[in-house]
Structures are given as C-alpha cells and as structure tokens.
Write a structure and sequence with these properties.
single chain, 151 residues, two-stranded antiparallel sheet, 7 helices, 2 strands, 4% strand
Length: 151
C-alpha cells in the first residue's frame, strides 16, 4: 500500500486511505438510509465531478505535506489562488446541479467534500462572496445533525 502523509482510517484491522474511497466504502458498507451517490447516472456524475474537483483540484494544495514544504509564512499566498480556481469550478458545476444540496435535494458525496473545503477556504481567508450557491448549500448542510456532529 502506498504511503501518504494523510490520516489513516482503520476498520477491523484494515487500513483505509484517501477521502473519496473512504466515503464510498463507508456509504456502501454502513448505509442506513439514503446513499451518497445518486441512483440517476447523470446526478451520480455530477456528485463525482464536484467531489473530484475538491479532492483532486484544491485539497492537495492545502494538504499538510504541501504546507510543510512551502513554509507557514507563504501558505495563504501560495494556496489561495488554487482554492479560488477550484471554488470557481465548483460554483459553475453547482449552477447546473444544485437544489437544496450540491446535487438536487439529496445529500451526496459532493456535500461531504464541500463543507470541509469551505472550512479551509475560510482558514486561508478566501473571500467567499463570489460563491453564493455553495455558501447557501453549506448553510443548509450545517443545520443538519450529521454535519453538526462532524465538526
């Protein structure tokens, strides 16, 4: 198994790495009610698109290993442009996919990625006024018990 500077989730002695595969594993293995990947294939694509933009397009730029390498004094200066590019792409995708949440009115894997990404955007002092769709979705998500418990 590859070695990454990331959190490792251990379940029943098995090691799990990387957010998206972990989310999918938990969803498939421990699902109680609705699933995080929509039944409709196009909505499933939209959920994967948004989560992939975040997981591969912005999150790596504010990962612990990258931030250690560039040094604390340059973190925000170096990271913010990449976060903004990713948020621009997410907001554009949400123009087509959003309902109450990122993809229609059911919580999806995209919502699970959105909330922590906006947390990091604020941490790096990114101005979020250009992202009204995603901040409105975040507000609705943060009202839910599941998201409150995750903070």
């Amino acid at each position: 198994m590859a070695s990454f500077d990331t959190t490792v989730l251990i379940i029943d002695g098995k090691k799990f790495l990387q957010s998206i595969p972990i989310i999918e594993y938990i969803d498939e293995t421990y699902r109680v009610q609705s699933q995080l990947l929509p039944e409709d294939s196009y909505q499933r694509y939209q959920a994967r698109l948004i989560s992939e933009i975040i997981a591969s397009g912005t999150q790596p730029f504010h990962s612990t290993s990258v931030l250690k390498r560039i040094g604390e004094e340059k973190n925000a200066e170096w990271t913010c442009p990449y976060i903004k590019l990713g948020l621009d792409a997410v907001e554009k995708a949400l123009e087509e996919s959003a309902g109450r949440y990122c993809v229609g009115d059911q919580i999806s894997i995209a919502d699970c990625c959105l909330v922590p990404e906006l947390y990091f955007a604020r941490l790096f002092k990114v101005d979020l006024t250009a992202y009204p769709i995603m901040t409105a979705i975040e507000e609705r998500l943060n009202e839910l018990l599941e998201f409150k418990a995750a903070h």
